[in-house]
Amino acid sequence: MKAVVLVSGGMDSLVTLAIVHAEGYQCAALHLNYGQRTEERELRAYTDICDHYKITERFVVDVGYLSVIGGSSLTDPQIEVERADLQRRGIPSSYVPFRNANILAIATSWAEVIGATAVAIGAVEEDSSGYPDCREEFFRAFERVIALGTKPETQITILTPVIHLHKDEIVRRGVELGVPFHLSWSCYQRSDIACGKCDSCALRLRGFQRAGVTDPIPYAL
């Protein structure tokens, strides 16, 4: 079995990779540079994670058009990255419009060529920033798109192994699998040391705290 695993470099994609790897899939790792603030740091995390798991099939894609389209504080320096508000309702400024659809389309193209039967993504619905393209119903709908838009003999499912887990559960699962959390990077706005103030940092910190595990990356707090 072969799976294309979307590896952003963050903790959710790291644990997703570990789960899929443990299930016996041969993993091919896909990473996207889309003009995000921490693009270089995320790419380094991706490379380190692939090295750790000895993944040889790697694909780094430049989709800078997402930053040209704009509309997100992750890609537009004119839009401020909001301070974390874990009680926020609604979609934060860090949402990159329809990003996961773009990512899944690329992953599907590559999967069909290399004979992969699955695409794995570390989307989290239960304990995330509220992005609409991180919902399970979105991925099930996209599976239908894949079935309609690929060759008749192509069979590709979308794996979302952490979608209904809270961050602390993801941490615990990662610990069980011995994942190298120190190689991952989650911060939205800094590459030298995690800010500890953005949504991604706050969710990660809370997850490690609730799991009773020390987060191994440094923070500016």
Structure description:
With 221 residues, the protein is of the alpha/beta class. It has a single domain, classed as Rossmann fold (3-Layer(aba) Sandwich), CATH 3.40.50. Helices cover 38% and strands 11% of the residues. It has a 5-stranded parallel β-sheet, with helices on both faces.
User: Could you say which structural class the secondary elements and strand pairing correspond to?
Assistant: alpha/beta
The CATH class designation is Alpha Beta
Query: In sequence order, what are the helices and strands, one letter per element?
Result: EHEHEHHEHEHH
In which order are the strands of the major sheet placed? 3-2-1-4-5
Features:
Rossmann fold, alpha/beta, 5 strands
What is the strand and helix layout of this fold?
Layout: E1 2-6, H1 11-22, E2 26-33, H2 39-52, E3 58-62, H3 65-69, H4 99-114, E4 118-120, H5 136-149, E5 157-159, H6 167-177, H7 199-211
Parallel strand pairs: 1-2, 1-4, 2-3, 4-5
Helix pairs in contact: 1-6, 6-7
Q: Quick recap of the structure?
A:
The protein is an alpha/beta fold. Helix content is 38%, strand content 11%.
